[in-house]
Amino acid sequence: MRESRYWILSLGAAVCLVVLLGIHLSIMHLDTLLAYLGVVNADPLHYQAVMARGRSGGWVLAYILLLAFGLYHGLYGLRSVLSEVVSPTGQRLLTWAVVAVGFIAFTWGTYVVIKSSLMGGV
Amino acid sequence: MRRYNNRLGIRGWIYAGNYGLERYLYFLHRISGLGLIFYLLLHIGVTSARIYGGAAWEQTMSLLSGPAFKLGEYVLMAGAIFHAANGLRLIITELGMCIGTPGRQEYPYVSSVRKQRRLMIVVMIIIAVLLLISGVDFFIL
Lengths: 122, 141
Prior knowledge:
CATH class of chain A: Mainly Alpha
Low-confidence stretches of chain B: none
Strand content of chain A: under 5%
CATH superfamily of chain B: Fumarate reductase/succinate dehydrogenase, transmembrane subunit
Shape of chain B: elongated
CATH superfamily of chain A: Fumarate reductase/succinate dehydrogenase, transmembrane subunit
Largest interface: A-B, 38 and 35 residues
Oligomer: heterodimer
Number of domains of chain B: 1
Number of helices of chain B: 5
CATH architecture of chain A: Up-down Bundle
């Protein structure tokens, strides 16, 4: 795939991230404001609340998509930044290092999401 | 033939010389992006504590509490808000929107960046409002 395609994919992932991360951050960090506005959102960091979200199919999908888009966009950006300070001979190694980090993080993150959905809650 | 070294490194990211404000936003975009990707990797590790049971989760959460972490969370939120809004501005201009129509250049020449400035100001106001709303939730409510 051409380099420009990776870049277009990164832009697409960014737009999806704005929506998904916006929802995630609002629920996790603006809970007081949401409760104030009438949107009931009990302590989102409480273990029961975390596992209740983990059981929901919609949240499982959202977390996996967040992982995929976040890791792709973030690691593509990291590679672009590092490519400016890595020597021309090290570019291929840099790409493979970034792919390896992304693969490990995505595999582990997806395992955690699926494992918590199968744990059946508290 | 000797190759010209055009890699300015980190100094080249920060120093924008005589360029406009947008060039400094590029630096902030880069710094916030780096912070967010490193946090994401850390976040994947920390939140995996939930698969080891309620006690492990509560223990992890108690380690990550206190005023310093609260401030850190707000800085992270601010970084995400800035990176998202500024990133949307970059995509909008990349698609050729909000940059005005091309015209014949007459002396004294005006920088084309000025045509994008209105969008930049709107985006900065949106960022400021979102930072204020988040700040109220984090520190006042």
